[in-house]
Amino acid sequence: xxxxxxxxxxxxxxxxKAIDFYSKVFDWxxxxxxxxxxxxxxxxxxxxxxxxxxxxxxxxCALNSYFHVQDVESxxxxxxxxxxxxxxxxxxxxxxxxxxxxxxPDGIPVGLLQPD
Length: 116
What we know:
- β7 and β8 (109-115) form a beta hairpin.
- It is globular, with a radius of gyration of 14 Å.
- It has one domain (5-115): 2,3-Dihydroxybiphenyl 1,2-Dioxygenase, domain 1.
- With 116 residues, it is an alpha/beta fold.
- Helices cover 19% and strands 41% of the residues.
- The protein starts with a strand and ends with a strand.
- The strands form 2 sheets. A 6-stranded mixed β-sheet has the order 4-1-5-8-7-6. Strands 2-3 form a two-stranded antiparallel ribbon.
């Protein structure tokens, strides 16, 4: 399958409060050591997601999904040609790759992740 769902994150306004909430509601555990400012969600044997503090005012608190792409820049350009709005430009994640986010025709955020 081309461009599979690669990662998901809950973008929140208060990370400690979200950890407390989701750990009690879903019995999730959080890895706060790998990326201290980006707690990874451990949901058992399946890949989990992460919690992210809302970094810019153009983003909303939401469940964000990221799709694995070969080239963030070209995918973002194709989305813009089709009428998408850039929410977050291509941004490096040290040791991981690059990410970006756009809003599709209905305003739904779509994340892109290009691994190293």
